[in-house]
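Methods — Computational structure assignment.
A single polypeptide chain was analysed. Its primary sequence is given first, followed by the predicted tertiary structure written as structure tokens.
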Amino acid sequence: MDPQNPYQSPQSELTAHSGGDQELAERGTRLVAAIIDGVIMMVLMLPLMAIGGYFTAIMQAAQAGQQAYGLQIMWGLGGLLLFFAVQYLPLSQSGQTWGKRVMKIKIVDQDGNKPDLATLMGKRYLFQQGIGLIPCLGAIIILVDVLMIFREDRRCLHDQIAGTRVVIAR
């Protein structure tokens, strides 16, 4: 510390922890992986919703001038559980969803290791998909979440919360 300036900042050199030599996944690759995961969920959920009467109930509520928030949240939670069931195997084995596996990218923690399943399911995906169930506010938070990928570190809000990043699988 300089005796003339006791408020001077420290002179040590700071370096960011790189988490190894893993290369961050490209934004477009992450997008395609998310689209693949979304298509898988649509193929599974849409028939269940049709058979379960979701579309009929929503149309009846709309015609009556009502919002069926309870029904939407119930089906959203069902979709979340189905997502966990479908993605359990690849997430537990390699930190990848099916879409990420196809695109050869994976989720790692800040040290470059595969995060535990509770972190992936609870902090990353429960936040990401669960918050979307909140009417209006959920959509705004999800928009902010995905737009954060345009930062230099390419980490979305759900990555920040879970302490993860997406890298190229080698």
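Note: The mean pLDDT is 90.
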